Amino acid sequence: MTQSLTPTLMLLPGLLCDEAVWQEQLTDLHDLDCRVVDFGTADSISAMADIVLQQAPERFALAGHSMGGRVALEVYRRAPQRVSHLALLDTGYEARPQGAAGAPERQKRLALLEQAQREGMRAMGTVWAQGMVHPDRLRDRDLMESILAMIARKTPELFQAQIRALLDRPDATAILKSLHCPTLLLVGRQDSWSPLERHEAMAALAPGSVLSVIEDAGHMSTMERPRAVTAALREWLDS
């Protein structure tokens, strides 16, 4: 690993996402060494964290969206001395409940996988994306096309691997309690996948963290309200 000449910000995308989810931030944070991580077909949060640590310099800031936030927490658990700043966007921290309580999530995720295998990734994405953005943005053709095109770039095999990672995700409660770097918790107010209440619970666990609520945004806050998200990231990086 070599140390970047400028501050490095590692950007971790969520389920079926890639650099498109961070595109506006990559443009607006051009003065930083921003690197979007590709998890490939890694099928566990642990394996994804390995990829981040292999690609990152010795010291870096870390921002994860959705599934990427869970990976970011695992990266911090493994190498807290390397993480200068931590941002968790539209994400969660709890493991899937054991037994019958966790069955509905598994069934819903596998139903989407079956649709992707049967009809293709884009067809699945048209259903899945309905709950991913603020309801008013469903009529935004450019935004929705960007999301659907991103999903269509993926394969059912990759989808299956990432579903496995999420279903088997570890509980990160202890990690949140251990945080000792500037920490941003950011969420779209209308995020129905990872709601505000979950981020408020995370803020209560994480000492000294800052909670930022992005108005008029759902789960895809970085794409829905990029300027507001970038402003929050700037303030966090300056802390």
From TrEMBL:
Keyword Transmembrane set for record: no
Residues of the AB hydrolase-1 domain: 11-231
UniProt xrefs under Pfam families: Abhydrolase_6 (PF12697)
One Gene Ontology term of the molecular function aspect: hydrolase activity
Entry superkingdom: Bacteria
InterPro entries in alphabetical order: AB_hydrolase_1, AB_hydrolase_fold, Carboxylesterase_BioH
Keywords associated with the record: Hydrolase
SUPFAM superfamilies: alpha/beta-Hydrolases
Name of protein: Hydrolase
The species this protein was found in: Marinobacterium zhoushanense
